[in-house]
Amino acid sequence: MTDEMKKCETMVAEMVHEVKNPLTTVKGLLQLLKPYLVMIEKEQYADLAISEINRADELLTAYANSNIASSPQQKLVCVNRLLEEMKLLFEREANVYRIQFHTQFDPDLLKVDVCRNEFKQVLVNLVKNAVESLIEVQDARVRKITLETNVLENRIHVVVKDNGSGMDQATLARLFTPFYTEKSYGTGLGLSICKKLIEKHNGLITVESQKNVGTTFQIALPIPTDVD
Question: pLDDT tens across 178-215, in order?
């Protein structure tokens, strides 16, 4: 197989993986809304579902053009608001598996300079992994996902932390390697894509984890030089 063919296969695999995430989210939201939509005002859920469909369409377009760098330009985005959206996106799973979301937001942290859809793509992957880790937990612990923002050493930090099943050091060492996964499902591409997107934004993504204790992902991004 030529290098070009391998490149095409990788591209297609990435596309399939990333399209599944927003479509799965939309499906979950529609399942949540279906019995109550007529009777109860749930505009925020409907708006969010439409936003996810649009995001899926943009992902398809970007990958069809065979170049992840051709995605929309960066702009100032409220990171705290994006993290609040994560709570809505995964509300169905949180209710089913009794997962608690906790937030610790820096009130003075307003915006980051990112491509909104790409940064949201990263957050969806990280929160999805946290949910899946908590689903694996069999003991009686309170299942928690904590979303944090703060500013340290002239960088904006975004933290996604869970107290789920955790990972050993061997898994951590290969975590961002394309196609590496210990799951019985999935492609092993999610975190490698996250790393690529964060680095594209001149940022850094790191992870700490302990088996049967939990996992913490931290994203560090430059502070925007021009904030309205």
Answer: 765 665 445 456 788 899 999 999 999 999 999 999 99
Task: Quickly tell me which residue has 């993986």 as its tokens.
Answer: 17
Q: What is the pLDDT of residues 92-112, one digit of tens each?
A: 889 999 999 999 999 887 789
Query: Distance (Å, rounded) from C-alpha 177 to C-alpha 189?
Result: 8
Structure tokens at 124: 């969806």
Statement: 3-222 belongs to CATH 3.30.565.10: yes
Burial of 83 (0-12, 13-18, 19+ CB in 10 A): buried
Report long-range pairs for 172-181 (Cβ below 8 Å, ≥24 apart): 172/207, 172/209, 175/207, 176/205, 178/10, 179/13
Whole-model pTM? 0.72
For 47-61, how does the pLDDT look when each residue is reduced to its tens digit (9 = 90+)?
Answer: 777 677 777 766 665
Residue 22 gets the label, from left (phi > 0), alpha (psi -120 to 50) or beta, of alpha
Question: Amino acid letter at 67?
Answer: N
- pLDDT recorded at residue 205: 95
Which residues, 6+ apart, have CB-to-CB distance to 58 below 8 Å?
A: 71, 72, 117
The answer to whether the Cα torsion of 94, 44, 112, 120 is positive or negative is positive
Query: What is d(CA 152, CA 132) in angstroms, rounded to the nearest whole number?
Result: 29
Contact between 81 and 116 (Cβ < 8 Å) = no
170 φ, ψ (degrees, to nearest 5): -65, -40
